[in-house]
Amino acid sequence: MHKEDQPLIFELSTEGRIGYSLPEMDIPEIDLGELLPEGYLREEEPELPEVSELDIMRHYTALSKRNHGVDSGFYPLGSCTMKYNPKINENVARFNGFAHLHPLQDESSVQGALELMYDLQEHLIEITGMDEVTLQPAAGAHGEWTGLMMIRSYHEANGDTKRTKVVVPDSAHGTNPASATVAGFETVTVKSDENGLVDLEDLRRVVGEDTAALMLTNPNTLGLFEENILEMAEIVHSAGGKLYYDGANLNAVLSKARPGDMGFDVVHLNLHKTFTGPHGGGGPGSGPVGVKSDLIPYLPKPVLVKNGDQYEFDYDRPQSIGRVKPYYGNFGINVRAYTYIRTMGPDGLKAVTENAVLNANYMMRRLEPFFDLPFDRHCKHEFVLSGKRQKKLGVRTLDIAKRLLDFGYHPPTIYFPLNVEECIMIEPTETESKETLDAFVDAMIQIAKEAEENPEIVQEAPHTTVIGRLDETMAARKPVLRYQKQ
């Protein structure tokens, strides 16, 4: 519902106003009737808005100010890292030698781009502890599916067709069971224990001869490091399964711990998250996958290799799962990630982890007196609170998220993971200043006090946004996806 004091910004059209000026045509006019069948030609001119250039500029500038992004405000969206994208990455991605390439150019004419891709693969191999990496997958979930398809091909090549199940924790990202299903597996859930970690006894119970893999995020979505990971790897490997690492939370362990050293056989990375490529409305993703040596034959082809001083694509991979994306991956995002890694260096990446963990623990302890803390222990890059205390006062986690909009913040993730009642998941990242963290914490504390003293102000939020609280059920079931003239 629109606020009553806000103009309907789309209703600007006035007949006769013109906001553009096109040059005169320098080619002969074409009779469209000769090119298109009669049924495809318009009988009337389209009803397009008629506005001045000034009005249209103000219109789109006003719309841009309504959008929230990491460049405009704090974005503590737990488990979906939206950290600052350094602008040097953007500059490098726009170099003519990168931005103006065509993926079908002859390999000899793009050796610089191929060298960058190869070097990026080598850096990711070192960071993850894997033996080989492919840059093809387009995003994290796509990387999950790619990794699972390689695991499936591996088992089938060994005649082990009974392995039809993938184990996922009850705190897993929703993409884990979804990717497993799309890859043709059944999913089995393993419970968390009282400490928020995978229950080892339950893991032993569900793992068996039909287990293809265990999918795991470490640290997990509660922001807790799975300290029994080596024992978990032994349980899965002893049963003949593989360990899959969901790299969504790699930001918490960069240069401190490597998935390959924990026992993982496959890992996907989110370059658009951990390595600062823009994503969401700002750009596409990139989800490279790394594997241990016994899975290398199944990598998507072509595989980028170095032959002497030349870089080339190897298509002779008879056991490959095939190409998983047109061309060779989202090159522009890969350039940004490469720039970030080279800019930061080993010490810089280590500092990323240290500051991300410090920021999360600082915020958690400041908020602890005002919200329930399900797991009172050291967290990694993110942490979860529970709004159970506020729920008893009639204020739900959704209300808290809506109220945060009035303070100019993007809300944190809510109601996930599912195993925490009224969950609030907060991830500050390493790039935010203490002043920003304190301002957000102060807003959360104020909302907690409002829930006690004046719950209506929270229940009816947001109050300062152009659009008030939507009927989200109706918006999902009957979305309005285009403008219709009233």
Key attributes of the depicted protein:
single chain; 486 residues; alpha/beta; Aspartate Aminotransferase, domain 2; three-stranded antiparallel beta sheet; 15 helices; globular
Outline the structure in words.
This protein has 486 residues and is of the alpha/beta class. It has a domain of 257 residues: Aspartate Aminotransferase, domain 2, CATH 3.40.640. The protein has 15 helices and 12 strands. Strand 8 and strand 9 form a beta hairpin. The longest helix has 37 residues. The N terminus is likely disordered.
Q: How would you describe the shape?
A: globular
- Per CATH, the superfamily of the domain at 87-343 is Type I PLP-dependent aspartate aminotransferase-like (Major domain)
**Helicity, as a percent range:** 25-40%
Strand content: 5-15%
N- to C-terminal distance? 16 Å
Tell me the series of helices and strands, N- to C-terminal: HHHHEHEHEHEHEHEEEEHEHHEEHHH
SS field, number of helical segments: 15
Which fold name corresponds to the CATH topology of the domain at 87-343? Aspartate Aminotransferase, domain 2
Query: What's the CATH C level of the domain at 87-343?
Result: Alpha Beta
- Describe the largest sheet: 7 strands, mixed
